[in-house]
Amino acid sequence: QVQLVETGGGLVQPGGSLRLSCAASGSFLRFYTLGWYRQTPGNQREFVAHITNSGTTNYAGSVKGRFTISRDNAKRTVFLQMDSLKPQDTAVYYCNAHYYSDYWGQGTQVTVSS
Prior knowledge:
The strands form two sheets. Strands 2, 4, 5, 6, 9, 10 and 11 form a seven-stranded mixed sheet that branches. A four-stranded antiparallel sheet has the order 1-3-8-7, with no helix packed on it. Helices cover 0% and strands 56% of the residues. A hairpin with a 5-residue loop joins strand 5 and strand 6. It is built from no helices and eleven strands. By secondary structure, it is mainly β.
């Protein structure tokens, strides 16, 4: 069983930055791919970025070059640095842990607005 808790969401102006954190607890976390997804009302949850246990990263095209995902295995935390934010980045952001099963956090709201 894996538990995930996201922090760091909030309101930011277009062009600004936010850093999301996801603290994970559970066994064998070092084997998990950790990632971020986001969801807006009426839409399906969409992939944002993930980082494998070996450090390989992958990004959605809409965020590539603006968002950076990283993980600290010792602290059991995954981060999402979001720069050059746009209004269309507004969503609830969810942390995900994947290793045969999927686990999700409760989500954190990110609002990009002037």
